[in-house]
Design a protein that fits this description.
This protein is an alpha+beta fold. Helix content is 53%, strand content 16%. The protein has one domain (3-105): Arc Repressor Mutant, subunit A (Orthogonal Bundle). It has helices at residues 3-22, 26-39, 47-57, 68-78, and strands spanning 44-45, 82-89, 99-105.
């Protein structure tokens, strides 16, 4: 692992830790909702797509930092539920149409 990957993983870990400090069951609830989204098989999707669907269909507290979701996406990939397939611009104003990983269900 190079330094950039290490810092990426550290940032995701810290964001997830903060979310679970504020809402102790957040990570479990969010991951359960993410798996439900993945099982629906929407084809290609970004974390932003998943978060929006979860917000409408699995009401739960918002993580203090949206980067906490990156940890859950990485976990789903490690567990073989999803795989990265490319990139897409986000719709998010706060991300200034930045680039986001495009995923698909395995």
């Amino acid at each position: 692992m190079n330094e950039a990957e290490h810092l990426r993983d550290l940032g995701m870990e810290r964001s997830l830790e903060k979310a679970t400090r504020v809402y102790p069951t957040w990570d479990g609830r969010a991951y359960h909702a993410l798996k439900a989204y993945i099982k629906l098989g929407f084809g290609y999707f970004t974390c932003e797509d998943a978060r929006e669907w979860i917000g409408r269909n699995h009401p739960m507290p918002q993580a203090p930092d949206k980067r906490a979701w990156g940890s859950l996406m990485a976990r789903a990939a490690r567990e073989g539920l999803i795989e990265p397939t490319g990139y897409r611009k986000t719709r998010s104003v706060s991300r200034h149409r930045g680039i986001s990983t495009l995923w698909r269900r395995k």
